[in-house]
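Example (one chain per record):
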Amino acid sequence: QEAVKLLGEAAPRRCRVKPLAVVGQAPVADLEKAFRQSLSDDGDAAAQLMGGSPESVLVDGRSAYEVASPAALLPLGCAQLLVSGTDDTDVPIALTREYVEDVRRAGGDAVTLLEFPGAGHYELITPMDPTWPTQRAAIERLLDDAASGDGGVGTASAVAVTTTTIVTHPDGAKVSNVTRTSKSSNRNAPTPATKM
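Predicted structure:
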């Protein structure tokens, strides 16, 4: 309940620190969907994190899930890199793909999704895992783009950039499919597919 109290104190104001980018490894980017789908642990990971259901935990009359869930806060105003394994049973890849579509529909944020076939939930957060070199390179690119102002963050001149990269697991080296789509009001034409 202490976390809910802190959410209540923070809800009326936005954070003054504006991140350049966000990285989510096997992210639970939509807390309400995670609750409704009974994800992870004993099916109650979201309820444990939030202190109850979306209806039972309120912050100033609003669901705490609306105040804390990235999906409810879109657009975030910064570039996002999401890394997921196709065999993740704790946070299924479908949930992450749906969030990427939500980001695209909301507009304004660049979003990159790295999918690792055969990877589960915990491989992605293990530094010695074969996926790590690819993740690190993507993080470095994300930060370079964000720092240079080329992160596709919500401005009138840059709308959403969506990149989907599927990398062979376990060696993490072979790119089997890369799609990059860019939409913008005053940038160059969409970037063609490229290999990492």
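Caption: The CA atoms of residues 131 and 172 lie 5 Å apart.
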